[in-house]
Specification:
Strand order of the largest sheet: 2-1-3-10-4
Helix content: 40-55%
CATH architecture of the largest domain: 3-Layer(aba) Sandwich
CATH topology of the largest domain: D-Maltodextrin-Binding Protein, domain 2
Strand content: 15-25%
Number of helices: 14
Distance between the termini: 71 Å
Largest sheet: 5 strands, mixed
Number of domains: 2
Shape: globular
CATH class of the largest domain: Alpha Beta
Length: 327
């Protein structure tokens, strides 16, 4: 009984310490993420939380809820707008119906590479976009990397635009993606992500498009070993806080939050690059053939009708031009 009593006393002491630690936080912000614990975006926000707690001497705590614990992305964005949730990390793709300006960032080949995307998002264009988020009760603190999507198939290495002709690719149920495939001379087949493996295996489709970690984790490399690193789509992600929570913070704490978020973006991008490299090495070892040296110019030129269809206003045309000209 003495052992049990001592253990119980230890548990009670630990609980008391936890209660004291929680009490030290004058403000606790809840942050949502759909990805699992350990994922780069989750680890990024965790790093932000640590820096904020340290620099505010424990006055502000950020509690991260991964794995859709607080809901799926669209739901948690809306809850953040209403102040039910304090913070959210989500893809620009989910914001398209909420912040219309984000739609342009789903255009194919908008960014030349990841470095180009970082320069755009960390510069004046990213600042202007933050103003658009503010109009919808969201304060954009930092932009994360969600990876780049590339083509993979079961038939042959794709090295030129002509190699895509006639191939059937699964795409997300998105008009831009369907039009992109048509412009490239391939056939778009919208279908749920969970059906892709068997569809390639049975020949319903020839391939799909995604990033290295998804290509690896879903096992698609087992049925489609030809991967072409064309990076046709790079959709940024954002860490945003509710204006309700933001307005309750004094200016000095707002500055701490913003700086910590931007520092976390540097870490998240590094973690994402490491995850991509690890997945690439894994699929290559398993037999995947990676095509990297391709001339993207014909692919980009083929997008003219897609841009003509979706970039219709002078404001949108100017923004796209400024993005493309960013060095």
């Amino acid at each position: 009984m003495k052992f049990v009593t001592t253990t119980l006393a230890g548990l009670l002491a630990s609980a008391a310490l936890a209660t004291v630690a929680a009490a030290e936080c004058e403000t606790t912000l809840r942050s949502s993420d759909t990805h699992p614990d350990g994922y780069p975006t989750v680890e990024g926000v965790k790093a932000m939380a640590e820096e904020v707690k340290e620099k505010t001497e424990g006055r502000i705590c950020i509690e991260v809820f991964p794995s859709s614990q607080l809901g799926e992305e669209k739901d948690t964005i809306e809850q953040t707008q209403f102040g039910v949730i304090d913070m959210v990390r989500a893809s620009f793709g989910t914001f398209n119906d909420i912040v219309p300006e984000t739609q342009l960032f789903s255009l194919p080949y908008l960014f030349r590479n990841q470095e180009h995307m970082y320069k755009v998002m960390d510069g004046p264009i990213g600042d202007e976009l933050a103003e658009a988020f503010a109009e919808h009760d969201l304060v954009a603190l930092a932009y994360y990397d969600g990876g780049s999507r590339s083509f993979y198939n079961s038939q042959k290495p794709v090295e030129t635009l002509e190699d895509l002709a006639g191939l059937k690719f699964r795409v997300m149920e998105n008009d831009v993606f369907v039009d992109m495939m048509d412009a490239l001379g391939a056939n778009a087949t919208p279908m749920p992500y969970g059906e892709v493996y068997s569809a390639i295996q049975t020949g319903v489709i020839d391939g799909a498009e995604n990033n290295f970690p998804s290509y690896d984790s879903a096992g698609h490399n087992e049925v489609a070993k030809y991967f072409t690193l064309d990076q046709h789509l790079m959709v940024p992600e954002v860490v945003a806080v509710s204006t309700t929570a933001w307005d309750n913070l004094p200016p000095e704490d707002q500055e701490i939050m913003r700086e910590a978020a931007q520092n976390s973006a540097v870490l998240e991008r590094k973690l994402w690059a490491e995850q991509e490299a690890a997945s690439e090495a894994k699929v290559v070892e398993a037999g995947a053939e990676i095509v990297k040296e391709i001339d993207k110019t014909p692919f980009i030129d083929a997008m003219a009708p897609v841009y003509e269809k979706y970039v219709t206003t002078p404001e949108a045309q100017d923004l796209v031009k400024r993005i493309q000209e960013t060095e």
